[in-house]
Each structure stands twice: as structure tokens, then as C-alpha cells.
Amino acid sequence: MSASTVRGAGPRKGAGPREWGGLAVLSLPTVLLGLDVTVLYLALPSLAEDLRPSGTETLWIMDAYGFLIAGFLITMGTLGDRIGRRKLLMIGAAAFGAVSVVAAYSGSTELLIAARAALGIAGATLMPSTLSLISNMFIDPRQRSLAIGVWATSFALGMALGPVVGGAMLARFWWGSAFLLAVPVAIVLLVAAPVLIPEYRAPRRGRFDLLSVALSLVAILPVVYAVKRGAKDGPEAPVLVALVTGLVFAGLFVRRQTGLASPLLDVRLFTNRTFSAALSVLLVGLVGVGGSMLLITQQLQLVEGLPPVEAGLWMGPPALMMLMAAIGAPLVARRVPPGIVVAVTLVLSTVGYLLLTQVGTKGGIPLIVTGFGLIYLGLGAIAALGTDLVVGAAPPEKAGSASAMSETVQELGLALGVAILGSLATAVYRGRVGDEFPAGTPDEVAEAAGDSLAGASSSVNELPAGWLDQAEEAATSGLNTAMLVAACGTLVLAFLSAVVLRHIGVIGGDEPGAPEAVPGEPARSDV
After folding, report:
1. Which of 48, 265, 358, 396 is the most exposed place for a label (fewest CB within 10 A)?
2. What is d(CA 525, CA 111) in angstroms, rounded to the nearest whole number?
3. pLDDT band for position 516 (50/70/90)?
4. DSSP assignment, residue 234?
5. How is 356-417 classified by DSSP, letter by letter?
């Protein structure tokens, strides 16, 4: 595909076997990134026993990847537009595979932290590259929306498979084997990509602005840090300083972009109503998902007492619900406006959150799976349609930047969900548990048990009889309260989605309501 190809110009060409085969290849790194999210949680206990990291080092092992992938998404999205999206994808896949080997055989905590950070940078090349390449390969908007639905489901599939595949490997091999899952995926992608995936490179428009890259990192990383640490430590001084620092540099970043002929991120994209509205729906919608994912995982393992592998198997039905929604929503949106489809599925998600408010301390697995399945139903719809609207609203030469923005707001939404709903559940837990422990309880045990259910479970042998049952009831009450708040927020989002997306017609239709063109860019006709 040449750099001058413009979607929406001339007759719409349907995708053939090569494009659908290419979609399968592009889904592989997406599944891999989903696996990486969950598999490390399984490997952490044996990893900690081998490398013996400190508490701070453990946090960096877990968070370095997320920090760097969030920080570099915008940069990598624009870089792919410039040097070639397939080229960047292959470079990133090769780097991800190679660094995964380094992580697997790390003999020190410092090396593992460095490898996790490098994996974050490599991972930042994969998501925007795959998504923007899909927008180039599938010219017909109906096929593109379906392809993005398949792509969006791949990540959830990877997360669901993580505990199962990771658990099976860790039962037979050492903790580093969890990282080696990336190697065969990288090899398949490097072999198949040149055959099945066309290259796309946007016309060159001036130099790549390194100062903008630095400003974007200094803007995003402190905000992500503040959100993650705020969930654990509350609004302490370092958290507030990081948040203010990030916001200040975000303002400087936006100001510089408006004055550049070739910006890292074209802020004029936000003047497009479809682009801004879809990003907003993605951001807010992922807040509830991020928080519920954390709390449900805790409920299954710490309250219901399921081992990680079995808990992962129970996440299979919700992943199937997301698959149905991510593929079905674009098909329905060919006849029903996307805003209505998103609103209806979010109402169903609201029902899911309300079901989770009724979960008790024991025997609640069917209710958990049903409620979480309905939540994932809404996630599948907003992930597929929201992402398609974001990418479809951008000119083809800026699909990489648009894809990066979509991924960035989703990362931020998940982090905010963990921070907001996780903090709320923790506050309820601490309020129910209190700080009164029987005489003779060691201070460190009382502190751990009073802080979280995980702390209470790890100290169960040193706690009074029956105290763990009280902690489980408190944690379940925290889950119920957080899910009630999420239900209220999701119901409001369902109404707002119908309103802010009402100007968008059915996918592939020619009726009024197509998104307006970005100023200075060719008009679009494919949404």
C-alpha cells in the first residue's frame, strides 16, 4: 500500500484472504501482551523466593513495564507513521522476544527490572502498530470495525489464558519460563508479517521532534505514577507532586504541538467530535473494568480460596462474552447507530455490576462469573466500536497517532479504575476491620491484617481464631460498595454515550452523521 493511499477515496475495496490472514498475525502480539499482564502475578512468588527482591524492588518489577508502555505509546504511534508501521512492528516484536529471554534468565533483581522496562518500550511499539495496520488493510468500514473487534478481543483472550498457560508452565519449569512465551510468537510474526501484512508509511512532514518526545514522557509518566501510587498510599505529598508535575508538562507538551508544522501528536484531532467523544467513552468505561478486575481476582483467590489456575478458568466465560460483544457489536452497528449499541451494552454492564453488589463471602462464584460476564459484554462493545471510531475519525497518515491515543486512554482508564475503586474497597475494608486487635498480637501482623485481606491471609496463623472470616466479610463488603459505585457511573455513561455519539450513523452507511474532517485534512467518508 502506498503512502498516498487515502481511505474513503474511490470505490471501497473488500479485504481478501491475505488481509484476514494478516489480521490473525496482528492478533498474536495482542494476545501476548494480554498474557504478560496476568502471567507475572503467578510467577511472582517463585521469582521472589529466587531473587529475594525488597518490597520496593518488587513494585518496580511489577510496574516498570506498565509505566514505560504508557509513556512511549504516543511516541511509537507517530514513529510508526514515519518509518513504516510494519517495520516498527517487526522491530518491536524482535526486541520483545529478545528482551523476554533476558528477563527469563535474569540472575539479579536489577537486571529483571531493566528487562521489564525494556519490555515496556518494546510493547509500546506493538499495540499502535497492529491497530493502525488494521486500519490500512481493511478499507471497507464494515470490515474494519469487525477486524478491530477481533483485535480487541485478542487482548482479553490473552488475559484469560495467562493464569492457565502460565500455571501449566510454572508447574513444570522455573519462573523464567513465563517470559519465554513471547519467543515463539515473535518468531511467527517475523516470518509471516512480510508475506501477509502490507507496509504503510505516511508522507514525510519535517523532522521528528525529540523535545516533544521528552515532554510527553515527563507528562505521562508522573501522572501514571501518581494514579498507581495514589491507590496504595493515598494523596500523600509525593503523589500530589507527581500529579502536578505531569499536568504542568502536559500543558507544555500541548503548547509545543500547536506551534509545530510536524507535531508528535496533532492536537487538532481533538476538534473532531467523533474522535473526542469515543476517547471519552473508552476512558470512563475502562475505569469500572479496571477496578472490578482487581477486586474480582482478589475475591476468587482470597475469599473463595481458588488457586490461580482455577480462578483463571472461571474467567473463561466472561472472556467469551467479550468475544461475542466485540464481534457482534460491529455487525449490529451496521443497522443500529453505534451510540445506541454502546449505550445498550453498558446498561447490561450496569446489571452486571449490580449483581456483584450481592456477592457474599462463600458460594458466590456463579454470581461473580455472571456479573463479570455482563461487564465484559459492555467492554467488548466499547473496545471494538470506540476504538474503530477513534481510528476511523483520523486521516490515514495519522492512524498511528490515533491508535496510540486510544491505547493511552485505555491504559489510563484501567489505572484509574484500580486507583478509585480499589481505594474505595480498601477504605471500606479498613473501616469494617478497625484497628483493635487482641493483646499479644504482633504489631507487624496487626498492621498487615488491618491494611488488606492479602495481609490478613498471609498472617492467618498469627491471628485470633475467626478473625480471617471477619476480614473476608469486610473485603466482600468493600467489593459490594465499589461495584455499586461502578454501576451508578456506568449507567450515567450509558446515557452520555447515546448523547455524545448520536451524530454518528450506522457503520458503512451514507446517511448524515459522519464525523467531520480534521481542519487541514481531506474529508473522510468511511464512518
Report:
1. 358
2. 50
3. very low
4. -
5. HTT--SSS-HHHHHHHHHHHHHHHHHIIIIIHHHHHHHS-GGGHHHHHHHHHHHHHHHHHHH
